[in-house]
């Protein structure tokens, strides 16, 4: 009897874990995971992805739509083509964050352990951390106060194509007060580069930094 009960408990535990890790997939509409829940990959084609507070998921991705990772939530990776990405306070991406056209915002305490990249839009960090470097082509980048980026910053030379439709505009790059950028800051195109007099940055290639004091240039 005891062995039967133990086997039943193990089976229920395994079954519950499997259900907790099920994928959430849609073609049209929002794909969401509620606060505190666990899921596998969360994906939609035409719609947004919403990950609730303290939820844990694998890949969060969409083609046409935004991705919102709730406060204290965790994803292994984030990817979208057309849409904004927001990591709310203390949200964490353990791998890469990839975006083509759209704003990327990391709020206070948020972290991307891997590489963060986009082509067009804006990238902003507010007391946040990126562990694998930042890469863009046309985006304005603000590495805000007390933020830290490891792996450097790369602003690539535009190539012809519809993904680079805004390539004539000069990106504005701001490294805010007490921010740290470890690694090389490489600029393959013209940019406006502003670096706080209290920031710490690595070697700068391809641009001349304009120093500023105060919270913004």
From TrEMBL:
<keyword id="KW-0732">Signal</keyword>
<dbReference type="InterPro" id="IPR012332">
    <property type="entry name" value="Autotransporter_pectin_lyase_C"/>
</dbReference>
<dbReference type="InterPro" id="IPR011004">
    <property type="entry name" value="Trimer_LpxA-like_sf"/>
</dbReference>
<protein>
    <recommendedName>
        <fullName>Polymer-forming cytoskeletal protein</fullName>
    </recommendedName>
</protein>
<feature type="signal peptide">
    <location>
        <begin position="1"/>
        <end position="20"/>
    </location>
</feature>
């Amino acid at each position: 009897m005891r062995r039967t009960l133990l086997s039943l408990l193990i089976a229920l535990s395994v079954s519950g874990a499997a259900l907790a890790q099920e994928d959430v997939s849609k073609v049209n509409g929002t794909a969401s995971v509620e606060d505190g829940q666990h899921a596998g990959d969360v994906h939609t084609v035409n719609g947004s992805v919403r990950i609730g507070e303290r939820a844990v998921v694998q890949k969060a991705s969409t083609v046409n739509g935004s991705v919102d990772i709730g406060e204290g939530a965790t994803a292994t990776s984030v990817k979208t083509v057309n849409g904004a990405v927001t990591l709310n306070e203390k949200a964490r991406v353990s791998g890469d964050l990839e975006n083509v056209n759209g704003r990327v915002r990391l709020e206070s305490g948020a972290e991307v352990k891997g590489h963060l990249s986009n082509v067009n839009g804006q990238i902003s960090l507010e007391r946040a951390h990126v562990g694998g470097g930042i890469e863009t082509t046309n985006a304005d980048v603000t590495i805000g106060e007390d933020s830290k980026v490891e792996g450097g910053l790369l602003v690539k030379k535009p190539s012809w194509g519809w993904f680079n439709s805004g390539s004539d505009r000069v990106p504005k790059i701001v490294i805010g007060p007490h921010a740290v950028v470890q690694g090389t800051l490489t600029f393959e195109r013209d940019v406006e580069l502003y670096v706080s007099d209290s920031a710490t940055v690595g070697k700068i290639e391809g641009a001349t930094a304009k120093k500023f004091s105060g919270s913004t240039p």
